[in-house]
Amino acid sequence: MRIAIDAMGGDNAPKIVVEGALAAAKEWKDVHIILVGNSAAIEAHLTERPANLTIRHTEEVIEAEDEPVKAVRRKKDSSMVVAGKLVREKEAEAMISAGNTGALMTTGLLVVGRIPGIERPALAPMIPTMDGHGVLALDLGANMDATPEQLVQYAIMGSIYRSKVHGVAKPRVGLLNVGTEAAKGNELTKTAYPLMEQAPIHFVGNVESSQVLRAKCDVIVCDGFAGNIMLKTLEGAASAIFSALKQEFTKTIFTKLAAAVLKPGLTQFRKKLDYNEHGAAPFLGIDGLVLKSHGSSDANAIKNAVRQARIALQNDLVGTISAEISHGKRDITT
């Protein structure tokens, strides 16, 4: 299986991206990694050259501040766009980028293309949960608005992803809402609720945001506006809590001693909430596997993104979603 990686995308590119790709190439010999970007910049960080790692040279880079649509259309020789072309032309089965999120979504839509029948692809990152298993959330920012029918498509795609990639036998799907009662919410959620009940998924009803970290479901569905607010709130709260704990534990010699005792447990707790452990978020609904790594990903996150892509390809994630959307049915108990 061939995986193209945008070597120039992300806050720490290309160094960190190359290190993560190299670690993945050494770990999984059945994966052929194509590093896409400036060859000289990439080679400067390659400490060795395994047979299953190659370089595709490009001259341009889509920057974080670039306007997505203009950048994709004008920078045709950028590392991100070329990686997308490799997927479209079947020279690679998947692509990974830690670069501009909007540009990557545009690349997925304009370069790779949508799965027939999918109205709008969705960004689906994993949100860490207290039990360590996480919840797949979609959409978290690819589209600010959604129709009830699009929410149902998100639910189906998310359920398939958790089943195929994470091995969850019967994923519990929840609808993000302001209350658990079926009649609660705005027009979008109230209309979507009965459609979810009829969909080929294990729908568990409405789930409030306060219950997301407690793993009340395996997949949480929402429009991109509400989802992105939820994600940023959770990230901000986690960051604030850890900063406050650090300040408290460094105030006096007694708190420092307490910190030394608690450090193993706190380290494990922080690891549960670390996005680097989850690797990348898929854009579900694209007719090829497109994964978005966090902009500040470390080498381990890039390696984990390759692991995710490898599992998804082994289980024919894109083909399964395409078949489900085309035929409109799936046995959710398998």
From TrEMBL:
- The enzyme's E.C. designation: 2.3.1.274
In the record, biological process GO terms are: fatty acid biosynthetic process; phospholipid biosynthetic process
What keywords are assigned to this protein? Acyltransferase, Cytoplasm, Lipid biosynthesis, Lipid metabolism, Phospholipid biosynthesis, Phospholipid metabolism, Transferase
Where found? Cytoplasm
In which pathway is this protein known to take part? Lipid metabolism; phospholipid metabolism
Q: Does the keyword Transferase apply?
A: yes
Primary localization: cytoplasm
GO terms assigned for molecular function: phosphate:acyl-[acyl carrier protein] acyltransferase activity
Recorded catalytic activity of this chain's protein? a fatty acyl-[ACP] + phosphate = an acyl phosphate + holo-[ACP]
Do the record's keywords include Disulfide bond?
Answer: no
What Gene Ontology cellular-component terms does the record carry? Answer: cytoplasm
Q: Which HAMAP family match?
A: PlsX
User: NCBIfam families from the xrefs?
Assistant: plsX
The similarity annotation says: Belongs to the PlsX family.
Q: What does the record give as the function of this protein? A: Catalyzes the reversible formation of acyl-phosphate (acyl-PO(4)) from acyl-[acyl-carrier-protein] (acyl-ACP). This enzyme utilizes acyl-ACP as fatty acyl donor, but not acyl-CoA.
Its quaternary organisation is: Homodimer. Probably interacts with PlsY.
The entry's protein name is: Phosphate acyltransferase
